[in-house]
Amino acid sequence: MLKSLSISNYALIDDLKMQPGAGLNMITGETGAGKSIMLGAVGLLLGKRADTKVLLHEDKKCIVEGWFELGSYGLQGFFEENDLEYEEPCIIRREISPSGKSRSFVNDTPVLLDVLKSLGEKLMDVHSQHDTLLLGDGAYQLGLVDAYSQSNRELSAYQGAYHDFRKAKKHLDQLKKKAFELQKEADFNQFQLDELSALSLQEGEQTELESKQEILENAEEIKLKIQEASGLFADEQFGILQGMGQIQQNLQSLERLAHTFGSIRERFQSALIEVKDILATLEEEDGQIEVDFEKLEEIRERLSKIYQLQKKHGVLTVEELIEIEQKLADQVFEFQNLDESLEKAEKDFAEAEKAMQSFGEKLTKKRVSCFSDFEKSMKSLLQDLGMENAQINFQRQEISPSSTGLDQIEILFSANKGGTLQALKKVASGGEFSRLLFAIKYLMADKMALPTLIFDEIDAGISGEVALQMVRMMKDISANHQIICITHLPQVAAKGDMHYFVFKDNSASKTISKIKLLDEQERIQELAKMIAGAQPSENALQSARELLAN
Predict the structure, then answer these.
(1) How far is the CA of 264 from the CAs of 243, 258, 268, 274, 535, in angstroms?
(2) Confidence label for 427 from pLDDT (cuts 50, 70 and 90)
(3) DSSP-derived 3-state class of residue 401
(4) Which of 123, 189, 306, 413 has its CA 20 to 30 A from that of 221?
(5) Which DSSP string do the residues of 140-165 spell out, in sequence order?
(6) Are 241 and 279 in contact, with CB atoms under 8 Å apart?
(7) Does 428 have pLDDT greater than 60?
(8) Distance CA 431, CA 419 (A)
(9) Do 393 and 410 form a contact (C-beta atoms < 8 A)?
């Protein structure tokens, strides 16, 4: 519900504020006084585009701000989805700067125009004579049937089943596509896997094989060099160990002569131990190294196969080849077991499709069950609104499953007795559309949380009893929903809970539009003027009093 509206620097409006009530609010005024301008400003709150042409004063920004009571609209999810703070009241503000830049805010948080438009549609519904094309839209008509038949539970159950159906179908399609791709590659993958598996590759073996190859390729020369070195160490006359033994004896003698040589002897003793250990290691290596041309050839052959596979797969290590082998094994396994997966996916899809169809049929049944009552109610209301010969019929056609069900709804209409029923968008005139939509909103008022309804001269072209019936219906709706109605008919204006008067003020250098909430005496005067003109007679004033009293 709109709690407060303020408009500044917009068209003919310098500074306008109004606080409509919760029920039926009437706005009257002379033609051109600024009523439609107000609707244009409200349109900015609903996400409509604007430029600097709307500025009354070109050096000041235009600001339109609305305070809304969110009540039972259930918009918490919308606020969470758009990262907005959910607050009561909700403040929507639109600013147009002199440079033409437009900014939108929800609770002081900047938002994109699309977000503002989406939120605005949930809070305000501006109904004008030219804004009725929506009624001819199939999706809108389907939504009306769901609201009237109270099929939210059935629709929710169907949509859950439809989601499962889409998910199962997507999974099945993906498996089929994968099966097709794997089928094309199956033989090649198996060949590559066999080629890799035949080598029984081990992590780290390439480095070990390359080291062994290096030793075997130089085995004879390595053994010769080891033996030469061993000879230099161990020769009985001129060997290093022989000489070091003599040095050791001399150092022992020096230590006996002076203790200070003890540390030198100890250091030399350590070097002697290390030299002996080196000799032992060389001899051990010499014993292990063999000149084995057959083993060398085996290593060369294995490394050659490894290098070929590395080049083929574009990698540098055995570890990478092992990883490729595992991936190929997974692909081959998947292909070999794909029939089982496909069978399960097809079973799941069939079950999901069956469940969706079942929930869809229940939803269809609930929808169709309301057609007769909906048609009768609409026909009765249209007769009350001056369309005595109106005929209306709801037609259902089965369609492929969609997120909204298995149904396509078409409302067929004829305004004339004996006329052929045709689709609304083909046969209804603007005035007929307007009354149709009004009747629908009247029926929907008890079945859903309607936004603030703004009727812009919806009573144009009607008068007398039809106008009274329309305003009585507005009064009924206003018991639970806020209505703002712009009207030129005194019998309509008199039924409002609150009455605002829009007028032009020419006292300044520029003509500006203003709005005023009328008290009882001011309402009588304004209604009398609507009945008899600028200088109402006593009879007109009395008629105005009677309109207010009834």
Answers:
(1) 17, 11, 6, 16, 135
(2) low
(3) strand
(4) 306
(5) HHHHHHHHHHT-HHHHHHHHHHHHHH
(6) yes
(7) no
(8) 18
(9) no
Q: Are 518 and 16 in contact (CB under 8 A)?
A: no
Q: Which amino acid is at 404?
A: T
Q: Name the 3-class secondary structure at 412.
A: strand
The CA angle 149-151-153, to the nearest 5 degrees, is: 155
Assign residue 361 a region: left if phi > 0, alpha if psi is -120 to 50, beta otherwise? alpha
Q: What is the pLDDT of residues 203-219, one digit of tens each?
A: 888 888 888 888 788 88
- CA-CA distances (angstroms) from residue 327 to 7, 88, 193, 305? 67, 57, 9, 20
* pTM for the structure as a whole: 0.64
**Residue 68 corresponds to which tokens in the numbers above?**
């809304």
> Which is it for strands 391-402 and 405-414: parallel, antiparallel or unpaired?
antiparallel
pLDDT tens-digit series, residues 349-373: 999 999 999 999 999 999 999 999 9
CA within 13 Å, CB half, 51: 1
Determine the straight-line distance between the first and last CA of the chain, rounded to whole angstroms.
Answer: 27
pLDDT, tens digit, for every residue of 235-294? 777 788 888 888 888 888 888 888 888 888 889 999 989 888 988 888 888 877 787 788
Binning the chain into helix, strand and coil, the percentages to the nearest 5 are 60, 15, 25
Q: Which residues lie closer than 8 Å to 224 by C-beta, 6 or more apart?
A: none
* CA dist., res. 550 & res. 546, Å (int): 6
Query: Got the DSSP string for 21-41?
Result: -SSEEEEEE-TTSSHHHHHHH
Which tokens go with 121? 């549609």
Q: Measuring CA to CA, which residue among 498, 482, 496, 484 is closest to residue 73?
A: 482
In sequence order, the 6+-apart residues with CB closer than 8 A to the CB of 212 are: 299
- Looking at residue 62, the DSSP 8-state letter turns out to be E
